[in-house]
Design goal:
It is built from eight helices and eight strands, in the order H-E-E-E-H-E-H-H-E-H-E-H-E-H-E-H.
Protein backbone atom coordinates (compact mmCIF):
# COMPACT_ATOMS: atom_id res chain seq x y z
CA UNK A 1 0.00 0.00 0.00
CA UNK A 2 2.81 2.41 0.90
CA UNK A 3 4.51 1.67 -2.41
CA UNK A 4 1.20 2.33 -4.25
CA UNK A 5 0.66 5.63 -2.45
CA UNK A 6 4.25 6.66 -3.17
CA UNK A 7 3.79 5.83 -6.86
CA UNK A 8 0.55 7.81 -7.04
CA UNK A 9 2.18 10.75 -5.28
CA UNK A 10 5.12 10.78 -7.67
CA UNK A 11 2.75 10.55 -10.64
CA UNK A 12 0.67 13.49 -9.43
CA UNK A 13 3.81 15.53 -8.81
CA UNK A 14 5.04 14.76 -12.31
CA UNK A 15 1.68 15.75 -13.81
CA UNK A 16 1.64 19.00 -11.83
CA UNK A 17 5.18 19.79 -12.93
CA UNK A 18 4.30 19.04 -16.56
CA UNK A 19 1.26 21.32 -16.39
CA UNK A 20 3.42 24.10 -14.93
CA UNK A 21 6.30 23.61 -17.32
CA UNK A 22 4.07 23.35 -20.38
CA UNK A 23 1.05 25.65 -20.02
CA UNK A 24 -1.84 25.20 -22.48
CA UNK A 25 -1.69 27.20 -25.68
CA UNK A 26 -4.35 29.85 -26.25
CA UNK A 27 -5.09 31.68 -29.48
CA UNK A 28 -4.17 35.34 -28.83
CA UNK A 29 -7.04 37.79 -29.13
CA UNK A 30 -9.67 35.05 -28.94
CA UNK A 31 -12.25 33.89 -26.41
CA UNK A 32 -15.06 31.36 -26.02
CA UNK A 33 -18.70 32.15 -25.33
CA UNK A 34 -21.06 29.33 -24.37
CA UNK A 35 -24.69 30.09 -25.21
CA UNK A 36 -27.69 29.04 -23.11
CA UNK A 37 -29.08 25.67 -24.18
CA UNK A 38 -31.91 26.10 -26.66
CA UNK A 39 -35.45 24.81 -26.21
CA UNK A 40 -34.49 21.91 -28.49
CA UNK A 41 -31.52 21.03 -26.29
CA UNK A 42 -28.88 22.44 -28.63
CA UNK A 43 -25.69 23.67 -26.91
CA UNK A 44 -23.75 26.15 -29.01
CA UNK A 45 -20.37 27.73 -28.41
CA UNK A 46 -18.90 30.79 -30.10
CA UNK A 47 -15.18 31.16 -30.83
CA UNK A 48 -14.56 34.91 -31.03
CA UNK A 49 -11.45 36.61 -32.40
CA UNK A 50 -11.18 40.37 -31.97
CA UNK A 51 -9.17 42.82 -34.11
CA UNK A 52 -5.92 44.25 -32.76
CA UNK A 53 -7.48 47.73 -32.54
CA UNK A 54 -10.57 46.60 -30.63
CA UNK A 55 -9.49 47.76 -27.15
CA UNK A 56 -7.94 51.04 -28.21
CA UNK A 57 -10.82 52.16 -30.45
CA UNK A 58 -13.89 51.81 -28.19
CA UNK A 59 -16.23 53.70 -30.52
CA UNK A 60 -15.41 51.73 -33.63
CA UNK A 61 -17.79 49.14 -35.08
CA UNK A 62 -16.43 46.22 -37.07
CA UNK A 63 -17.56 43.89 -39.84
CA UNK A 64 -17.91 40.29 -38.71
CA UNK A 65 -17.21 37.00 -40.46
CA UNK A 66 -19.22 34.03 -39.18
CA UNK A 67 -17.65 30.67 -39.97
CA UNK A 68 -19.20 27.24 -39.51
CA UNK A 69 -17.34 24.25 -38.04
CA UNK A 70 -15.21 26.38 -35.71
CA UNK A 71 -13.83 23.28 -33.95
CA UNK A 72 -11.98 22.44 -37.18
CA UNK A 73 -11.42 25.72 -39.02
CA UNK A 74 -11.39 28.68 -36.61
CA UNK A 75 -7.65 28.72 -35.85
CA UNK A 76 -6.70 28.38 -39.53
CA UNK A 77 -9.01 31.22 -40.56
CA UNK A 78 -7.65 33.46 -37.80
CA UNK A 79 -4.08 32.77 -38.98
CA UNK A 80 -4.96 33.61 -42.59
CA UNK A 81 -6.81 36.73 -41.45
CA UNK A 82 -3.70 38.02 -39.68
CA UNK A 83 -1.66 37.65 -42.84
CA UNK A 84 -4.26 39.46 -44.94
CA UNK A 85 -4.55 42.34 -42.48
CA UNK A 86 -0.76 42.67 -42.50
CA UNK A 87 -0.88 42.93 -46.30
CA UNK A 88 -3.70 45.50 -46.03
CA UNK A 89 -5.90 43.57 -48.48
CA UNK A 90 -8.78 43.16 -46.00
CA UNK A 91 -10.10 45.49 -43.29
CA UNK A 92 -9.95 44.63 -39.63
CA UNK A 93 -12.97 42.53 -38.73
CA UNK A 94 -14.29 40.20 -36.04
CA UNK A 95 -14.29 36.44 -36.62
CA UNK A 96 -17.00 34.38 -34.94
CA UNK A 97 -16.65 30.62 -35.21
CA UNK A 98 -19.84 28.61 -34.76
CA UNK A 99 -19.39 25.45 -32.71
CA UNK A 100 -20.81 23.25 -29.98
CA UNK A 101 -20.42 23.12 -26.20
CA UNK A 102 -20.54 20.09 -23.92
CA UNK A 103 -18.49 17.00 -23.26
CA UNK A 104 -17.27 15.16 -26.37
CA UNK A 105 -19.81 16.56 -28.83
CA UNK A 106 -20.45 14.45 -31.93
CA UNK A 107 -19.54 17.09 -34.50
CA UNK A 108 -20.60 15.02 -37.50
CA UNK A 109 -24.11 14.44 -36.17
CA UNK A 110 -24.52 17.97 -34.80
CA UNK A 111 -23.45 19.71 -37.99
CA UNK A 112 -25.64 17.45 -40.12
CA UNK A 113 -28.66 18.66 -38.13
CA UNK A 114 -27.77 22.35 -38.35
CA UNK A 115 -26.15 22.82 -41.75
CA UNK A 116 -28.31 20.73 -44.10
CA UNK A 117 -31.30 22.64 -45.52
CA UNK A 118 -33.12 19.46 -46.57
CA UNK A 119 -33.51 16.01 -45.04
CA UNK A 120 -30.83 13.69 -46.42
CA UNK A 121 -31.73 10.06 -46.97
CA UNK A 122 -29.23 7.41 -45.95
CA UNK A 123 -27.82 9.41 -43.03
CA UNK A 124 -27.91 7.92 -39.53
CA UNK A 125 -28.12 11.34 -37.85
CA UNK A 126 -31.10 13.65 -38.27
CA UNK A 127 -30.75 16.37 -40.89
CA UNK A 128 -32.61 19.23 -42.54
CA UNK A 129 -32.71 21.92 -39.84
CA UNK A 130 -30.71 24.71 -41.50
CA UNK A 131 -33.60 27.16 -41.22
CA UNK A 132 -33.77 26.61 -37.45
CA UNK A 133 -30.04 27.18 -37.16
CA UNK A 134 -30.34 30.33 -39.26
CA UNK A 135 -33.07 31.53 -36.90
CA UNK A 136 -30.78 30.86 -33.91
CA UNK A 137 -28.11 33.01 -35.53
CA UNK A 138 -30.55 35.83 -36.16
CA UNK A 139 -32.31 35.79 -32.79
CA UNK A 140 -29.49 34.79 -30.43
CA UNK A 141 -26.02 35.00 -31.94
CA UNK A 142 -26.23 38.27 -33.89
CA UNK A 143 -27.69 40.30 -30.98
CA UNK A 144 -24.98 39.02 -28.61
CA UNK A 145 -22.11 39.71 -30.99
CA UNK A 146 -23.43 43.13 -32.00
CA UNK A 147 -24.03 44.14 -28.37
CA UNK A 148 -20.88 42.80 -26.73
CA UNK A 149 -18.34 43.23 -29.52
CA UNK A 150 -19.52 46.30 -31.44
CA UNK A 151 -20.12 44.30 -34.61
CA UNK A 152 -21.70 46.24 -37.47
CA UNK A 153 -25.12 44.70 -38.27
CA UNK A 154 -24.85 46.02 -41.83
CA UNK A 155 -21.57 44.16 -42.45
CA UNK A 156 -22.12 40.46 -41.73
CA UNK A 157 -20.36 37.77 -43.78
CA UNK A 158 -20.71 33.98 -43.76
CA UNK A 159 -18.22 31.23 -44.62
CA UNK A 160 -18.32 27.45 -44.55
CA UNK A 161 -16.87 24.34 -46.12
CA UNK A 162 -18.67 21.25 -47.45
CA UNK A 163 -21.99 21.17 -45.54
CA UNK A 164 -21.00 24.59 -44.21
CA UNK A 165 -20.63 25.81 -47.78
CA UNK A 166 -24.07 24.42 -48.60
CA UNK A 167 -25.44 26.25 -45.56
CA UNK A 168 -23.88 29.49 -46.80
CA UNK A 169 -25.55 29.11 -50.21
CA UNK A 170 -28.89 28.28 -48.59
CA UNK A 171 -28.65 31.32 -46.31
CA UNK A 172 -28.02 33.51 -49.36
CA UNK A 173 -31.29 32.39 -50.95
CA UNK A 174 -33.40 31.95 -47.81
CA UNK A 175 -32.43 35.19 -46.03
CA UNK A 176 -30.39 37.35 -48.45
CA UNK A 177 -30.74 40.43 -46.25
CA UNK A 178 -28.72 38.91 -43.39
CA UNK A 179 -25.25 38.83 -44.98
CA UNK A 180 -23.17 40.96 -47.36
CA UNK A 181 -20.85 38.20 -48.52
CA UNK A 182 -20.47 34.41 -48.63
CA UNK A 183 -17.59 31.97 -48.96
CA UNK A 184 -18.75 28.50 -50.04
CA UNK A 185 -15.69 26.22 -49.96
CA UNK A 186 -16.37 22.91 -51.74
CA UNK A 187 -20.09 23.18 -50.96
CA UNK A 188 -22.10 19.95 -50.81
CA UNK A 189 -24.22 20.83 -53.84
CA UNK A 190 -25.07 17.16 -54.45
CA UNK A 191 -26.82 16.87 -51.07
CA UNK A 192 -30.49 16.10 -51.54
CA UNK A 193 -30.06 15.55 -55.27
CA UNK A 194 -28.77 19.04 -56.15
CA UNK A 195 -31.44 20.55 -53.90
CA UNK A 196 -29.61 23.89 -53.71
CA UNK A 197 -29.71 24.24 -57.50
CA UNK A 198 -33.49 23.99 -57.36
CA UNK A 199 -33.55 26.66 -54.67
CA UNK A 200 -31.29 28.89 -56.78
CA UNK A 201 -33.52 28.56 -59.84
CA UNK A 202 -36.65 29.26 -57.80
CA UNK A 203 -35.07 32.40 -56.35
CA UNK A 204 -33.93 33.57 -59.79
CA UNK A 205 -37.50 33.27 -61.05
CA UNK A 206 -38.57 35.96 -58.55
CA UNK A 207 -36.14 38.53 -60.02
CA UNK A 208 -35.34 39.64 -56.47
CA UNK A 209 -31.83 41.02 -55.92
CA UNK A 210 -29.00 39.54 -53.89
CA UNK A 211 -26.85 42.49 -52.87
CA UNK A 212 -23.78 40.51 -51.89
CA UNK A 213 -20.48 38.99 -52.97
CA UNK A 214 -20.10 35.21 -53.36
CA UNK A 215 -16.94 33.09 -53.65
CA UNK A 216 -17.41 29.41 -54.60
CA UNK A 217 -14.63 26.82 -54.81
CA UNK A 218 -14.16 23.15 -55.58
CA UNK A 219 -11.17 20.79 -55.53
CA UNK A 220 -9.57 19.36 -58.67
CA UNK A 221 -9.15 15.96 -56.97
CA UNK A 222 -12.52 16.05 -55.20
CA UNK A 223 -14.72 12.95 -55.30
CA UNK A 224 -15.89 13.00 -58.95
CA UNK A 225 -19.62 13.10 -58.23
CA UNK A 226 -19.18 15.75 -55.54
CA UNK A 227 -17.07 17.94 -57.84
CA UNK A 228 -19.57 17.55 -60.67
CA UNK A 229 -22.27 19.03 -58.41
CA UNK A 230 -20.11 22.06 -57.62
CA UNK A 231 -19.33 22.56 -61.30
CA UNK A 232 -23.03 22.39 -62.18
CA UNK A 233 -23.74 25.17 -59.71
CA UNK A 234 -20.75 27.24 -60.85
CA UNK A 235 -21.84 26.90 -64.49
CA UNK A 236 -25.40 27.89 -63.58
CA UNK A 237 -24.49 31.08 -61.70
CA UNK A 238 -23.94 33.28 -64.79
CA UNK A 239 -27.22 32.06 -66.28
CA UNK A 240 -29.22 32.88 -63.14
CA UNK A 241 -28.29 36.57 -63.39
CA UNK A 242 -29.17 37.35 -59.77
CA UNK A 243 -29.45 41.18 -59.68
CA UNK A 244 -26.72 42.68 -57.49
CA UNK A 245 -24.74 39.47 -56.93
CA UNK A 246 -21.01 39.69 -57.62
CA UNK A 247 -19.46 36.23 -57.70
CA UNK A 248 -16.25 34.38 -58.47
CA UNK A 249 -15.80 30.65 -59.08
CA UNK A 250 -12.58 28.71 -58.62
CA UNK A 251 -11.43 25.10 -58.90
CA UNK A 252 -8.32 24.63 -56.75
CA UNK A 253 -5.74 22.54 -58.54
CA UNK A 254 -4.07 19.55 -56.93
CA UNK A 255 -6.27 19.45 -53.82
CA UNK A 256 -8.81 17.02 -52.43
CA UNK A 257 -11.93 17.88 -50.44
CA UNK A 258 -10.57 19.25 -47.14
CA UNK A 259 -7.42 20.60 -48.77
CA UNK A 260 -9.38 23.41 -50.40
CA UNK A 261 -10.00 25.18 -47.11
CA UNK A 262 -6.77 27.17 -46.79
CA UNK A 263 -6.86 28.70 -50.26
CA UNK A 264 -10.66 28.98 -50.30
CA UNK A 265 -10.77 31.01 -47.10
CA UNK A 266 -7.72 33.15 -47.89
CA UNK A 267 -8.88 34.08 -51.38
CA UNK A 268 -12.50 34.13 -50.27
CA UNK A 269 -11.85 36.70 -47.53
CA UNK A 270 -10.00 38.88 -50.02
CA UNK A 271 -12.89 38.66 -52.46
CA UNK A 272 -15.85 39.28 -50.16
CA UNK A 273 -14.11 42.07 -48.24
CA UNK A 274 -12.62 43.74 -51.34
CA UNK A 275 -14.94 46.80 -51.20
CA UNK A 276 -13.75 47.48 -47.63
CA UNK A 277 -10.03 46.73 -48.17
CA UNK A 278 -7.51 49.50 -47.40
CA UNK A 279 -5.50 48.53 -50.50
CA UNK A 280 -5.81 46.28 -53.54
CA UNK A 281 -3.48 45.06 -56.26
CA UNK A 282 0.34 45.06 -56.13
CA UNK A 283 2.16 46.26 -53.00
CA UNK A 284 3.18 49.91 -53.01
CA UNK A 285 6.64 51.29 -52.22
Amino acid sequence: MKRLLLTLGLTLCAMTHADTAHPPHHLPGSQLRVLPTTAEGRSYQLHVHLPASFAREPRRRYPVLYITDAYWDFAAVVASYGNLVYDRVVPEFIIVGLGYAGERPDYDALRLWDLSPVRLSGEKAESGHADRFLATLEKTVFPLVERDYRADPAQRFLAGSSLGGLFALHAMYARPELFKGYIAASPAVVAGGDWIIGQAKAYAATDKPIKARLYVTGAEYEWPGFLAGIQRYQALLPELKHPGLVFENRIIDGERHAGTKAESYTRGMRFVFAPLAPEQGPSKD
